[in-house]
Amino acid sequence: METNNVLFVEWILIIQLAFCILSVVRCNEICEIHATVIRRIENEGFHRDIHSLVEIVTGYFTLLDDCVMILEETMPSGLYVNPDQLADMRRFRQVQACPVGMVDIEASQKDSLPHSVYVYSSLNRTENLLSASLTLPFHVRYHSPTPHGGYSMVQLAAPSLLLHCQNDMQCVQGKRIHAPCRPCGSDLCQWVNLTYKT
User: Fold this and answer.
1) What sign has the CA pseudo-torsion 92, 130, 174, 134?
2) Closest CA to 107 of 136, 137, 139
3) C-alpha pair distances (Å), 186 with each of 69, 98, 181, 183
4) Is the pLDDT assigned to residue 15 strictly greater than 60?
5) pLDDT at 61 over 90
6) How far apart are CA 158 and CA 198, in angstroms?
7) Which residue, 49, 43, 140, is CA-closest to 89?
8) Is the pLDDT of residue 31 over 90?
9) Cys-Cys link to 61, which of 44, 128, 191, 198 (CB 3.0-4.6 A)?
């Protein structure tokens, strides 16, 4: 009788250990997020577009529910976004983007500072894949003439990828930052800054 009790207790301990191991493995699976951003610049001259395709994959599709993302673009002094153009595009639901701070669209490159723009998008879901396709118009500033002519080089840095979901994202790796909850809004939400591959 005592041997049966010992075996019963051992089986219970083995089952509890198995549940603990499965819980840890499942949590790691749920929290894994892999993001990719594919970008291309179109058009020539002073008026161009950045096209970005964002794909976010998670090991468990219920982790990310009702999510919104921001691509935070940093425009160097040689480039700018036009706030009036972005306001018109927001009104017609073509792009949900808003510059951070003031942008002087008349200034030349030497009289300008870099500025940021938040490009918002909802994410389309296909099982465990979240994706978005965004287009941001931008413009090239006039540069100072060079002694021997030629072109000036302007380099656009990689954007930051920020993610905000309605459900708890505590197990998602990444720095937490505060940014506007919606384009040009004043209320702030907590966003996760995701690392990604290009």
Assistant:
1) negative
2) 139
3) 17, 12, 8, 9
4) no
5) no
6) 9
7) 49
8) no
9) 128
Question: Nearest-CA neighbor of 112 among 84, 145, 87, 143?
Answer: 143
63 burial via Cβ count (<10 Å: 0-12, 13-18, 19+)? buried
CA distance 54 to 176: 20
* CA 145 remoteness from chain centre: 36
Q: What angle do CA 160, 163, 169 make, to 5 degrees?
A: 135
CA-to-CA separations, 73 to 14, 29, 66, 68, 146, in angstroms, rounded: 52, 30, 23, 16, 28
d(CA 189, CA 169): 13
pTM for the complete prediction?
0.81
Query: Hey, is 27 helix, strand or coil?
Result: helix
Going by C-beta distance under 8 Å and a sequence separation of 6 or more, which residues neighbour residue 141?
A: 77, 78, 79, 80, 107, 108, 109, 112
Across the range 47-74, mean pLDDT stands at 88
pLDDT-above-90 percentage for the chain: 64
Task: Please give the biggest Cα pair distance in the chain.
Answer: 99
- Chain segment 114-139, per-residue pLDDT in tens: 999 999 999 998 888 999 999 999 99
- Phi (first) and psi of residue 109, to 5 degrees: -60, -40
